[in-house]
Specification:
Hydantoin permease; binds phenylalanine; mainly alpha
């Protein structure tokens, strides 16, 4: 076996690092989840709380995760253990969470293929809700698309860090931005679009509860992919001298812009009353159908959703694959195959839980909803608390500082702020929101 350093891949440069990490961040979370969570939680009021969570918690945590990865240059489990012996479990907890997320994320990702094709061939028909229910509760059809999507990931991952992930990100991300801009310009060009938009972004603080803060925080962590090893592994592929904070700021800016623009596109179509996961898959095709060239817009929208999903899922897959390659000594192809097979099993079960297996429930939730809620409401906040405690309190202060400032060369002004946020603000705020949010959640059951 060759040595660790010769075996490890890495990104070619700064742009590649930003595109790949932005690809991980920008996903279903931005285009599918953010708009519906916003409309359920009081529109503009939610956005204000969300932006607060992004700046005070998400950004510092993203920097922390990049730093741990970049410093240790290994998979999430070894990364924590290398910095402080006995802390490998934190990396393992992240990998388990990201695997659970893959379980339902791949299912929705698979739907985007069917919807892109059905839009292109104009075959969704007039009953949008019916099409969605018939398709998602079917046994085989969604399974086939989900497996196809997982295999797409598989082939990118076995292509390697530069030949697979970097190359795919460099093609997908510009395409994604282009489609997003075209759709946004088109929706704002419609006068009824501009009007609907005003209604949704106007803050309604009466809808804000403890759970709103938990939702906003969970969304911030989810959309930035923090705590789960995905950003850690990408950080480990950053070249020497990459500015950690600068890269994180670029990623956060792009991610936030895409979320807001996606909300603009969706709300300007006048669908703010539609809630839940139906927002993107039922309301959007209906709106597009009423427009000239509707099926082209619809196809572009689902292509956008699919691209965003793919650039995110490769980071999830890579995080878990890196464990099998580096910790279990497997070849990249072998490690990736295990992850692919595991993902197919879990995602198939999640897909079936919407139809044939829908009666099997825990706390009233089928497997699909359980995976989503458990990771977003429980695992993400816990990982947020633990990661900030690790960098703020467990990592030797001078070492953390050296890493965060690239040996004192960069970010000297922002470092104290970031360190303060990680050491005090994140643990206290995330724990508080977590406890109160859970109490609220249990009361609402
Ligand atoms: N950030 C992605 C999104 O918003 C989801 C994700 C979570 C990606 C965890 C990687 C790891 O859709």
């Amino acid at each position: 076996m060759s040595t660790e350093t010769t075996k490890r891949g890495g990104f070619g440069g700064k742009l590649a690092a930003i595109l790949a990490a932005a690809g991980s961040a920008i996903g279903l979370g931005n285009i599918w989840r953010f708009p519906y969570i916003t409309s359920e939680n009081g529109g503009g009021a939610f956005i204000i709380i969300y932006l607060g969570c992004i700046l005070l918690l998400g950004l510092p945590l993203l920097i922390a995760e990049f730093a741990v990865g970049h410093n240790s240059k290994c998979n999430p489990i070894d990364a924590f253990a290398k910095i402080r012996k006995g802390w490998g479990w934190l990396g393992a907890m992240g990998l388990i969470s990201v695997f659970l997320i893959m379980g339902y994320y791949f299912v929705i990702s698979g739907w985007t293929i069917n919807y892109t094709i059905a839009s292109a061939t104009d075959s969704i028909g007039g009953d949008y809700g019916g099409f969605f229910t018939t398709f998602t509760t079917d046994i085989w059809k969604p399974l086939i698309f989900t497996v196809a999507f997982i295999l797409l990931n598989h082939f990118i991952i076995i292509g390697g860090v530069q030949g697979g992930i970097e190359k795919a990100s460099k093609i997908m991300m510009p395409l994604l931005f282009a489609i997003l801009v075209v759709l946004a310009v088109y929706s704002l060009w419609l006068p009824e679009g501009r009007e609907a938009l005003g209604n949704v972004f106007t803050p309604d603080f009466s809808k804000v509860t403890g759970k709103t803060f938990l939702d906003a925080m969970g969304q911030a962590f989810f959309t930035l992919s923090v705590g789960m090893g995905a950003m850690l592994i990408y950080g480990s592929y950053f070249k020497e001298g990459t500015k950690i904070a600068g890269t994180a700021i670029s990623v956060v800016t792009l991610d936030t812009l895409v979320a807001i623009i996606a909300a603009v596109i969706i709300f300007s179509a006048g669908v703010e009353n539609e809630s839940g996961m139906q927002l993107a898959f039922v309301a959007m095709p209906k709106v597009f159908a009423a427009m000239p060239l509707g099926n082209v817009w619809s196809m572009l929208f689902f292509l956008l959703l699919g691209l965003a999903a793919l650039s995110s899922t490769i980071s999830m897959h890579e995080a878990v694959t890196s464990y099998f390659v580096e910790k279990r000594g497997m070849t990249r192809t072998m490690g990736a195959t295990i992850v692919t097979l595991g993902a197919i099993l879990l995602a198939s079960a999640a897909s079936l839980s919407l139809g044939a297996w829908n009666e099997y429930r825990v706390a009233g939730m089928n497997l699909f909803a359980l995976l989503d809620n458990f990771t977003a409401i429980v695992m993400l906040p816990l990982l947020g608390i633990l990661t900030s405690v690790f960098v703020g309190w467990i990592w030797k202060r001078s070492d953390a500082k050296a890493e965060l400032t690239a040996q004192g060369g960069v970010d000297k002004a922002t470092y104290p702020v970031i360190y303060f946020l990680l050491r005090y603000v994140c643990p206290v705020l995330v724990s508080t929101v977590f406890v109160f949010g859970i109490i609220d959640f249990i009361k609402s059951l």
